[in-house]
Amino acid sequence: MPHKYTLKLAHINDTHSHFDASRIKFSLTHAGKQFDVYSHTGGYARIGHQINQARIQAEQDKQAFIFLHGGDSFQGTLYFRQFQGVANAHLLNQLKPDAMVLGNHEIDAGNGPVLAFLNNIEFPLLAGNMDLSREDASKESPMSGHPRLLDYDSQTGRAKVLIKQIHDKPLAIVGITLDQMTEIARPDPDTYFINAIETTRKTVEHLKSQGVDHIIVLSHLGLDQDRLLADTVDGISLIVGGHSHTLQGDFRPLGLIATTYGERVNNTPILHAGKHAETLGLADIEFDANGRVTRLEGHNYFMLDQQFILESAEGVAPEDYTAIRSQLEQHPGILWQQEEPQIIRIIASEYRPAIAAMDKQVLGFLPRDLIHTRLPSKALPHGSEIAPWVCKSIYHEVKRIHPSVDFALHNAGGVRQSLSKGELTLADVIGRLLPFDLPLVKYKILGLYLFEALESAINSATNNSVTGTGAGSFPYTYGLKYCYDGRKPQGERILTLEILCPNSTLEKWLAVDKAQHYIGVSSAYTASGREGYHPLLKAQWQRPLEELTLPNAFIRFMKREQTLEQELSPQLMYTSHREAVN
Closest Cα to residue 301, out of 317, 283, 279? Predict the structure, then answer.
């Protein structure tokens, strides 16, 4: 019996239908000059090649090999909008994951799309805290008992577990997803999600009692909740996660973030691999006989074009290109663009032709990169550079039809990604930026409930609440601006709230009167009271706007604007300026 058990692990998460390579920008320094590097990274063909190479290497090194997906394959691009999960199943089958955990976006439209996905995939889908014991057996899309679904066992109070082998030891993979699913997605009413931590605790304790010590939790909880899970539940060997789009690894030399790949909490390493199939996590892991990880070596990897574009305000010389390429080659998180031919063929012949025309419809021009981040930070004190424009488009396009509108309010999670400078196409908007074709809703609401809604949403986004649902609930606005202080007692955290006076020739802001009614517009998702927005349900009335959806408002606005001006003052562009203090 060996004393050490080795595993080569590949992992991805939150791929969101990004089957093609994605545009990427790095910032590097050479000889005192700053350079912007533009390339493409990832995509399923490149990931497929690297996974195949990792499998071959594991076999040569006599290692066990496992490939895991941390959830949220659905949504994100025109491929999903056009094919509704069929392409996702087909192309994931080409990658041959050992397991995937259910993400919240898999269940955005109820259980039906999940059942269709289960019927098409060739690997198990794990949802160990999804309780189907009360499912209506006569419904059109019953999932209970599906052979490829490992859900919650209501009789034991534990997750159903996938068992693999690592040398002569069983290796358990436990899939755990968000227990607040009804807050951020749309599961069928007869589907329940049991407490993630308690389900994991009971499952791990049972496995340990059965002599199963090597336990991987495949999680779609987000990094903060993974940390809490690791800290609370003893005996987890490793957590492989998703949901928070966390890119682990030291990417400071590329102008990106610096975090620890495989950070440990309570002796449990936690692995995340970014988002949108831009990166692939690869790790060599060594366990002792009791399931504890004694060594973890690995990284997240960008998979770049062999050629790239280099820009600098000080000009670019041939030797600069050579030097920057050398820097990229020396970085431990860079691989190159080798691709799996079969996946290229499937995408090109079966899926891309149906969406290619939308990539040719140019809506306008972006004079610079616009960054989307859900929360404000020191680097971006105003937060997202995109979400305020989305709110502005909602406000102006609705106001053309309904002049009584006073403000627009939208949640950060409804905007999906940053935008690169250059042409903005129809495919960029409806496939990537605003892939959720949500109706807009107009409502009449007391100022008092606006204070409550903003505070509740920010509390939820910043974990200043026991029922936080993640940073996606953070509110962006047009026509409203506010200041929030999380150190104040609950109910007093919105220090100021002002509304734009629409009839003034100059920009003029008035304090919101808690006893006065105002007319707002939001997406149907936000207006439904999810993710901390429940005070909006206290509106005097809500009326769906049949004329506009969220992406259509932005598309109309862009066609009129043609460009998102770079020179706008922060006061105009960021009418939702705020301070979020925990």
Answer: 279
